[in-house]
Specification:
This protein has about 140 residues and is mainly alpha-helical. The chain is built from 5 helices and 3 strands, in the order ααβααββα. The chain has a 3-stranded antiparallel sheet. A hairpin with a 5-residue loop joins strand 2 and strand 3. The radius of gyration is 19 Å and the shape is globular. It starts with 20 loop residues before the first helix and ends in a 9-residue tail after the last helix.
Length: about 140
Amino acid sequence: MNSDAPVDAPVWNVMLPTCPSRTSLARIANKWTAMVVIALSNGPLRFGTLRETVGGISGKVLSGTLRDLERDGILTRTAYDEMPPRVEYTLTPLGQTLREPLTALGQWAEQHIAEVLDSRDTFDNVVHGTAAQRTDS
């Protein structure tokens, strides 16, 4: 809880099953949310560019993710009255607060993927008697 919060402000605890902060954590922890926030970190993007940047996401999943993030106040959708129509998505000030932790999380994943893959191979070898074949990118 923020020490600047009013004395009568609720105390949120993500570990409690009834705490609404759990839904916020679940949204932020979603892989597509993290990638969308990272993609929007450098400024506004149109839907098509965002879909290309976040490789592997379907249009339906991207639309749902964007709608959820807009509802939570993480990004804004701006429609321009032009022909052809143009829509851009950008992080709000609240969304900007996620840039650093989610970018760091993405960097951690990139920096440690070799160790993770080695651990998986070792685990699979112990549990199943063979290591799964993998291709490193």
